[in-house]
Design brief:
Number of strands: 9
Number of helices: 11
Strand content: 15-25%
Radius of gyration: 22 Å
């Protein structure tokens, strides 16, 4: 008999997240246990650990003569299939085009990136991403003088500080049609970044200090959809700085954004003000334990409205017992 070794906390966190804090066989969210697929309790490799509910965990350790057993092969097959399905679903629901493809005309609101950190996106752009984006859109944007062949924005000087805050955006450097082209192009770049780099999608079940502390690292790209609190500075002229936070179970994500990168008056005055449900795509800068809370400091890449969560899509309510 093998010697049981404690499963490292980071491995636990990674395996639970990969399975969405759900049984990989039935997708139940309560009574979860980590099962060693090959029955070797000292083999704590992530590929040897499956998230099972109590019922299927018992079944995996039961040998029957008259009926089919839940064998190592079966468990491994379920684990791989569910984790791949969930990973694909998370990426799809984190993008504008993916959400539209899934819900189509039945979806009452079209998802849109209302905030895009243009300078940060430009830093990430590679020739691969530029070549993968819709080439009709790319060539049109180049011909209109909106971007160069590398996707970098071509805008003249703009005295943002003398403009009313609702008009002090990067889009106000262009005429109406060119502003639309810029927003469409950089929205497409954001979707491609998600597909290329695969952000860690933070679901409701991930908001536990012990989990996030081991699951996240500085530099991670994360996607968080939930209610955020927005607090804007009060200046009437020039772009406003916006403090943004969301929290649950003494876990809090914090970052700041500028209205200069917001698309349209509605984004500034409504979508990203007060308390709104949005999807935020951000890079983790640091994790800090303070006053009993875990603070995750981030740098935003994009924020949008009209997205759906994986919990909503698979129609299984999250249980606090999970």
């Amino acid at each position: 008999m093998s010697t049981r070794l404690a499963i490292p906390r980071k491995v636990q966190s990674d395996v639970l997240h990969a399975s969405g804090h759900r049984c990989c066989i039935c997708q139940k969210v309560s009574g979860l246990q980590l099962h060693h697929i090959n029955k070797n309790n000292s083999d704590n490799r992530p590929e040897n650990l499956a998230v099972l509910c109590q019922e299927h965990h018992d079944e995996a350790h039961t040998n029957r003569e008259m009926s089919k057993n839940l064998t190592e092969t079966h468990v491994r097959k379920y684990k791989i299939a569910w984790e791949n399905q969930l990973d694909q679903l998370r990426k799809t629901l984190s993008t504008c085009n993916g959400t539209r493809e899934i819900f189509g005309d039945d979806y009452w609101i079209s998802p849109m990136w209302g905030y895009l950190n243009h300078s940060r996106i430009a830093q990430i752009l590679t020739r691969e991403l530029v070549d993968l984006v819709d080439q009709d859109l790319m060539q049109s944007s180049i011909q209109r003088g909106v971007v160069d062949r590398n996707g970098l924005i071509l805008s003249g000087p703009n005295d943002y500080q003398s403009q009313h805050f609702c008009s002090a955006t990067i889009y106000d450097s262009f005429n109406h049609l060119d502003a639309i082209a810029l927003h469409r192009l950089y929205s497409a770049f954001s979707d491609l970044i998600i597909w290329r780099f695969g952000p860690k999608v933070i679901d409701a079940s991930d908001f536990k200090k012990s989990h996030l502390r081991h699951f996240l690292r500085p530099g991670n790209l994360v996607s968080v959809q939930r209610g955020f609190y927005f607090r804007q500075t009060e200046n009437e002229y020039g772009p406003r700085e916006v403090s943004i936070r969301t929290f649950k179970n003494r876990c809090e994500f914090r970052f700041t954004a500028s209205t200069q990168n917001m698309y349209g008056t509605t984004s500034i005055s409504c979508s990203f003000s007060g308390h709104k449900t949005v999807t935020a795509l951000a890079f983790v800068k640091s994790l800090e334990d303070k006053d009993g809370k875990l603070l995750v400091h981030c740098s935003p890449l994009a924020m949008g409205i009209g997205f759906r969560t994986t919990e909503e899509y698979i129609n299984l309510p999250y249980s606090e017992e999970a």
